[in-house]
Amino acid sequence: MEIGVPIIPVDFSNVDAIVKVLEEHHIDTVVSAIAMHTMGDDAPNELELIRAADRSRVTKRIISSEWGTDVREQYVTSPKNNLQIHLHVTDTLSLSQIGLISSTLHKVNAKKELEKTTTLEYTRFHNGYFSDYWAFPKVPSYLSRQPLVYWIDMKNNAAAIPGTGDVPAVFTHTTDLAKFVAASLDLPKWETDYFVCGDRLTWNEFVRLAEEAKGMLPFLPTYLFTYLPTYLTTLLASRY
């Protein structure tokens, strides 16, 4: 598919190689969309990209791959020992230390790496959930992982709601987020964090809107749970 821009192969595991590409192509601003979720103790190459951008003589700015909720001061639960660990850390942690907290942990480590940079101006975008996951294919999306089903299964008219379902969450479509990101490139100075909110509603409100949109009531079954000590969740039909 023709996208109107050049595609340049890069070895993201090699900092020197990234620096060379950045300088050869005079890349002033890096916008990272590296997937931050991994399996096991493997880590995405976000840290290498940050280090390379900081070393590059021509690169001045980087938008780190956050694209979710703010994880600067986040409590996470370790499946290994059922303990809450506060992720206000000074050193890089590994998944083997605190359990299967993939993207959250990698984003915390990326933030720590950003704070070590000496020449870069950086920012992160916090947009909540991508609403694409529930609107696709009715609303077009370029996200590759479609459909990604969790909590609400639009195809099979079902929901497995965490907690009471009354806590608000933020949902933003990638096309709206992209407009804010593009506009930010023209700002003379960046804040270290930007918050984008397309919609703010509870999961129970989301279910009601989904039922209205599909013209059927109710979404069944809806499972409410408040604590899962075995780290199991309700499997929705689309997950089989």
Name the features.
18% strand, elongated, 12 strands, 4-stranded parallel sheet, 240 residues, alpha/beta
Description:
- This protein has seven helices and twelve strands.
- By secondary structure, the protein is an alpha/beta fold.
- The protein has a domain of 83 residues.
- The strands form four sheets. A four-stranded parallel beta sheet has the order 1-2-5-10, with no helix packed on it.
- The two termini are 32 Å apart.
- About 15% of the residues have low confidence.
**Largest beta sheet, briefly?**
4 strands, parallel
- Tally of alpha and pi helices: 7
N-to-C span: 32 Å
Shape: elongated
Structure summarized in a few sentences:
The protein has 240 residues and is α/β, with parallel strands linked by helices. The protein has a domain at 131-171 and 199-240.
Topology (SSEs and partners):
Layout lengths: L14 H10 L4 E3 L14 H10 L5 E3 L11 E3 L6 E3 L8 H4 L3 H15 L4 E6 L2 E2 L1 H4 L16 E2 L4 E5 L5 E5 L1 H11 L8 E3 L3 E4 H12 L7 E4 L15
Parallel strand pairs: 1-2, 2-5, 5-10, 6-9, 8-12
Antiparallel strand pairs: 3-4, 7-8, 9-11
Helix pairs in contact: 1-2, 2-4
